Amino acid sequence: MSARSLYPLLLFLITIGSAAQQTTDTPAFFVRTIVQKPEFIKGDSTLVSFVLYSEGEIRTASCKQKALKVKGARARRLNINRETTRGRGRWENRLYNTLVWAQYIVAADAVGTLTLPAIDFRATVRLYERSADPFAEFFGYRRGYKDFEVSASSAKTKISVTEKPKKTTQEIMRARGGIL
Predict the structure, then answer these.
(1) What is the pLDDT of residue 23?
(2) How far is CA 56 from each of CA 19, 79, 116, 124, 157, rounded to the nearest angstrom?
(3) Which residues of the chain form beta strands (DSSP E)?
(4) Contact present, 122 and 95 (Cβ < 8 Å)
(5) Is the dihedral of CA 103, 107, 113, 114 positive or negative?
(6) How high is the mean pLDDT of the chain?
(7) Residue 4 is inside which H or E element, if any?
(8) pLDDT over threshold 90, residue 132
(9) How much is the pLDDT for 5?
């Protein structure tokens, strides 16, 4: 390959690099309420997690609500270390930074539908700027960053609680060791 054929390739790479995304838009930030069992039996319980998703690095996060209050159910907060729950996750074919904010064990007192309330969150999200030079990161160029103050609310979530199904005579006989 001659120098003449490398020159257009190098010029193309630099042009692509200079058109690199210098973002000033607010990064995506949202909250998902993840229910382990969206339908469970009265007397049983389910795990409910509130997970923060962001395009950038979640630097700080806060929530005014300290406890989950659900009408017709008991909710017990699990003691988790948020720093160990940081990670990356996919949602709708996109990759996001994630943080599990809180987890609760929810147990129903009666048959019906439980409604988990919407919870408001605020966070500081950091986006790193991309270099205009495609070789800059390779040679140790330090990237700049910009912090954004963002907020989001979890959606109200419904959980269905059903009555325990009754056993048939055959199931009762098998459980007792009877012969049918």
Answers:
(1) 47
(2) 20, 26, 27, 9, 26
(3) 29-35, 39-41, 45-54, 57-62, 73-77, 87-91, 94-108, 112-116, 120-128, 145-153, 157-162
(4) no
(5) negative
(6) 82
(7) helix 3-18
(8) no
(9) 64
Residue type, 53: Y
Measured distance CA(18)–CA(5) in Å, rounded:
21
The rounded distance, in Å, linking the Cα atoms of 172 and 167 is: 6
Residue 5, CA distances (Å) to 14, 16, 134 in order: 15, 18, 19
Q: Are 48 and 68 in contact (CB under 8 A)?
A: yes
The answer to whether the CB of 67 falls within 8 A of the CB of 48 is no
- What's the token pair of residue 45? 């319980």
Neighbours of 53 (CB within 10 A): 20
pLDDT tens across 15-73, in order? 544 444 444 588 899 999 999 998 888 888 999 999 999 998 899 999 988 889 988 89
| In contact, 85 and 130? CB cutoff 8 Å | no
